[in-house]
Amino acid sequence: MKNKFSIGEMAKLHNTTIKTLRYYDDIGLLKPIQTDSHNGYRYYSTEQFEQLNTIQYLKQLGFSLKEISKHLEHRDIDGFLELLQKQKQLTEMKIKELERINRRFETRIEEIHSAREIRELEVASIKHIKERKVVRLMEKIQSEPELEVSLRQLENIANMNSSIFIGGVGLTVSLEHIKNNKFDVYNSIFILREEDKQNSLETTIPEGQYACIYYRGNHSDSPRYYKILLNYIHAQRFHIIGDAIERTIIDHFISGSKEDYLTEIQIPIKY
Question: Which residues pair with residue 244 across a beta bridge?
Fold first, then answer.
C-alpha cells in the first residue's frame, strides 16, 4: 500500500478541507512530509494520520490551535491532563449557564401557558407576591423607542443577553406619578432575575400585598387600567406604598393578534 497521500486524499480521509490543511501547514501545526518544488503539491504519510486525528479531537473539545500546537510540541501526560482538566472546567461552566437558560425558558413557557388560561380580565384583585430579584435601570421612558434603547443599555451594563431575560422585562411608574394620574411616563426598566449572580444594578421588588389587574393590550393601553385599579384601591381604603409595576407578558413579538396580548399592572398597597 502506498504511503504518500495528496492533500486532497488526506482531506477526504479525515473529513476535513484542503483549505484547513493548507492553513495548518502555514502555521506549522501539520506540515506535509513533502512539497513538490515544481507545482507546490503537498503530500502526507500514514505516520501523520494520528497527528491530524489528535488535532481534530482536541479542536472538538474546544482547545485553540495555539494550545494544540503547544501540546504537540511538548508532549507529556501531565500537560495533556492539564489541558483536559482546563477544558472540563470550561465545559462545566457552559453546562451551568445552559441550565440557567433552560430554567428561564421553562419559566417563560409556564407563564405563557398560565396567561392563556386567565379569564378574569379588567378586574382588580389582591395578590400576595414574594420578593423578586431584578436588575433595574432608573431612566425616564415615555415612548417605545426610549424603552428599547433603555433595555439595550440595561442589558449591556448588566452584562446580560436576550436569551437570559426573555419575557422578564418590566417597567415601573413612580408613586408620585400614580398620585398625579400620570401613567404614560415610566421611571425605570427592570429585568427579572433568578440566579444569585451579583450585579451593581441588582435590587429587589419587596414581598407584600399588591393590587393587580390583567388586560388585553400593551403598555400604550395602560392608563385606563391604572384608573380602574386606583378606584378599587380607594374603595377598599388601601394605601399605595411604592412604584407600580407593569409587565407585558404576551405582546406583538409573540402573537400577531392583539386579542392574545396580556399585560399585568401591580401596585403595592397596605391597609
Answer: 173
Q: pLDDT tens digit string along 18-28? A: 999 999 999 99
Please list the helix, strand and coil fractions of the chain in percent, rounded to the nearest 5, in that order: 45, 25, 30
Q: pLDDT tier at 206 (50, 70, 90 boundaries)?
A: very high
Q: How far apart are CA 60 and CA 70, in angstroms?
A: 17
Question: Please, are residues 64 and 43 in contact by the beta-carbon 8 Å criterion?
Answer: no
Instruction: Look at the block and give the residue holding cell 434603547.
Output: 149
Distance CA 151, CA 133 (A): 17
Q: Classify residue 210 by its DSSP letter.
A: E
175 and 270 Cβ atoms separated by less than 8 Å: no
Q: How far is CA 186 from CA 139, 171, 209, 247, in A?
A: 8, 6, 21, 12
Residue 194 one-letter amino acid: E
In 3D space, the residue among 1, 20, 7, 194 whose CA is nearest the CA of residue 99 turns out to be 194
CA–CA gap between residue 266 and residue 271 (Å, rounded): 16
The three three-digit cell numbers of residue 101, written as one number:
437558560
For the whole model, what pTM was predicted? 0.69
- In angstroms, the CA 35 to CA 26 distance is 12
Question: Average model confidence (pLDDT) for the chain?
Answer: 89
> 65 Cβ partners below 8 Å, 6+ apart?
27, 29, 59
Task: Return left, alpha or beta for 100; rule: phi > 0 is left, psi -120 to 50 is alpha, else beta.
Answer: alpha
